[in-house]
Known about the structure:
The chain is of the alpha/beta class. About 35% of the residues lie in helices and about 20% in strands.
Amino acid sequence: EMTTKACCEAGKPVTMEHTDRGKEMKLGEFDVYVSGDVEKAKAPVIVFYDIFGFDHPQVREVTDRFAEQGYYAVMPDIFRKKPWSLESFPPPDKDDFKKFLARIDETVVDDVALLKEHFKEVGLGEKKIGVAGFCWGGKWSMTLCADADFGAGFSAHPAFISVEMAEKVVAPMVLCPAKGDVHCEPLIEAMKKKEFGDKCLTKRFDNMIHGFCAARGNWDDEEVAHSVEEALGLAFNLFNSTIGQ
């Protein structure tokens, strides 16, 4: 509930100047945005966008920045070109919104299996995968970090996460909640009991709105741009010291 409130209060997406450094391609029947040199990549990374979907410049920019760190970064269009509609934001009917997310959840597992196949096909099958997710994608970052194929996870302004989920992770995570988002300290405490616990951390951005690293972030604002760099910097440090080794 807390997250939904923070999400609704953060307002509609904003746009920004961005030129894709990656490209769109088809993977089976769905679209993915891929960025980075697969031949030289240190490891694959999956990026889960927020509820506004595949076309927003910020999430493409984030994917490109992971690529610049030396990863083969892939952002799948889980929503199949049907993100939550801007006309219905904030959601007038919370039940409709929950049904939308439940329907999406049913497809994610198969989509991740397709991505794993793709990573094998391009020669990255032996590598541990990194995962980054925003808002509802934070839930999937944490869920996938309980899968032994994954080696590191990051989420900014995560939603629908819990201590129970944190207890199951087998890979270290960095969590960066914003104003009004869930308090992540208890989740990190649960992770700190694990062998990789010293790599897990949370940094709260109370000066930022929910969504600042994704479609709601006005990156033309210097303070926002700096916060995005700081949050992504924590993610890069984690990924570079784990899957990027």
